């Protein structure tokens, strides 16, 4: 596998406002502007395409704010400085609501960014050495997802009934005596020189210059996958006309083609049109 230089992730920030649209009650934007939080890749890129190519015709004024972590976009949505966000899957959203007492709800699935296992030391996940160290995300949902991915290849076996919140305590068999290092998801690409393998979320892999289809030594399948990224709003915002316009665009044939052409299998559209 070719080695790539991993750039330092920017300091967490509420961040980078790609368009400023005057002042108003919605996160500093004009009242009719839909303010959407997103991680840079792929959510920010998909939204930027919509903003530049589709939004005006649909009568949608869109402002995009980029985030470098998974907590702040939901916190900002709950507090009202965002109208919607795009970056997370349903299991993560459900766990966030349970643990933080928030009332955020899904609107529509947008695309699937498959999680992958990456390594600078082996090219086959089944060739990990006895006692190898594998870095995994430290949040409940993504750690469970990472362990299920490893289990799908027989690297480990999970206890019967282990769900989306599986942890190392749910491992029933670990024939290679793997050691698991829990890290913040954004730190995982930078860990590749220090561990034998890392299970990395799609957006952070692509941010770091890794190609899921070329560099991952194991990649999630889209079949029966519950981890599609979704457009989310605070409860009560589902029927906002601006949100409905964006939901329609996210599942349009145009966005489906954009995702297929740009990511070439590294991100999978959910639209059938």
From TrEMBL:
It is found in: Membrane. Keywords: Lipoprotein, Membrane, Palmitate, Signal. The keyword Metal-binding does not apply. It is a lipid-anchor. Gene3D superfamilies: Periplasmic binding protein-like II. InterPro entries: Lipoprotein_NlpA. Residues 1-22 form the signal peptide. The keyword rRNA-binding does not apply. It comes from the Bacteria. Belongs to the nlpA lipoprotein family. This is Lipoprotein. It comes from Streptomyces shaanxiensis.
